[in-house]
Design goal:
Blueprint: H1 6-19, H2 25-46
Length: about 60
């Protein structure tokens, strides 16, 4: 399955924001999963992989 990019996850979060409240349980679960994936991708994008030399990074 295709994994979403950071930009695609950001767009999805923006759609949820514009849609506003009134989410059912499935929508709330989906939003939580999207937020978690977004945070993980943001962290990876911000890492300086030069810091990983010698096994010092937390991958």
């Amino acid at each position: 399955m295709h994994e979403l990019t950071l930009e695609e996850l950001t767009a999805l979060l923006n759609v949820f924001d514009r849609a506003g409240a009134g989410q059912d349980a499935i929508e709330a679960d989906l939003l939580a999963r999207i937020k978690a994936q977004h945070a993980e991708k943001e962290e990876l994008a911000s890492m300086d992989f030069d810091d990983c030399l010698g096994g010092a990074c937390k991958l």
